[in-house]
Amino acid sequence: MTADHDSQAVTPSAHVVGDQEEVFRFLATVTATAAGGAGTRVDTHGAAVFLGASDAYKAKRAVKFPFMDLSTLEKRRGACDAEVRINRAFAPDLYLGAVPVVRRDGALYLDGAGEIVEWVVHMRRFDERQTLDRIADRGELTVVMIERMAAAVALSQTRAAVWPGVDFAAHLGAVIDGNARDLDEAPELFEPARVAALTARSRQALARAALLLARRSADGFVRRCHGDLHLRNIVKLGDTPTLFDALEFDETLATIDVLYDFAFLLMDLLERGLVRDANHLFNRYLVEWRDERQLSGLAALPLFVSVRAAIRAKVIAAGLAHLAPDGRPGSAAMARRYLALAESALAVPAPRLIAIGGFSGTGKSTLAARLAPDFGCVPGAVHLRSDIERKRLFEVAEHERLPATAYDQRSSDVVYDTLRRKAEQALVAGYSVVVDAVHQRAEEREALRLLAARLGVGFAGLWLEAQLPDLVARVTQRKHDASDAQADTVALQMRRGAGAIDWYRIDASGEGDLVLERARLALRSQP
Question: To which CATH superfamily is domain 132-344 assigned?
Answer without folding.
Answer: Aminoglycoside phosphotransferase (APH), C-terminal lobe (3.90.1200.10)
